[in-house]
Design brief:
single chain; 161 residues; alpha+beta; nine-stranded antiparallel beta sheet; 9 strands
Length: 161
């Protein structure tokens, strides 16, 4: 075999390998799941991280690591509802999924005079749930709920009900 033939074969092999690698990376890329009430209601969603637009953690949501903000979506008498667990006040709302977006009705809350840092936790919880919802899988193939708005992004892991 002459040198030109060896170079052409090596080039063809390298190009094939690159194309194969590129195809593999596209196949293994995480795919977003559509947001549906059934998907939201399949799990409780426990907050694992929340950052402001500048990258700073939303510290009000992490004052007690033993009791993270948890969203519990469920159906009650044919109505889709969500409750915010581990807040000082009892908080919840009706919601609808419209074109893969979660839209809340009025968020209802008791009006207990919560001391700090619980009062700030409740305020931050109401703000963090407003935004664009998406669900992807993490490295362990478990669902992660992401909520983004102009001010912050929050990540919730799926927890069995």
């Amino acid at each position: 075999m002459n040198s030109l033939t060896k170079i052409l074969m090596a080039s063809t092999f390298a190009a094939g390998m690159l194309a194969g690698c590129q195809t593999m990376s596209n196949v293994s890329a995480p795919m977003a799941q559509p947001i549906t009430s059934n998907t939201l209601q399949a799990y409780n969603w426990q907050l694992v991280d929340a950052k402001r637009a500048n990258g700073e953690q939303v510290s009000q949501l992490f004052y007690n690591s033993a009791k993270p903000l948890t969203l519990s979506f469920f159906k009650n008498d044919g109505t889709d509802r969500v409750t915010f667990m581990n807040t000082c006040n009892n908080m919840g709302a009706e919601y609808k999924v419209v074109n893969s977006n979660v839209e809340y009705g009025n968020i209802i809350s008791t009006l207990m005079a919560c001391p700090e840092p619980q009062a700030s936790f409740d305020t931050a919880a109401m703000a963090i749930v407003q935004g664009k919802y998406s669900i992807n899988k993490n490295a362990d193939n478990l669902p992660i709920l992401t909520i983004r708005n102009n001010d912050q992004v929050a990540y919730f892991k799926a927890v069995s009900k």
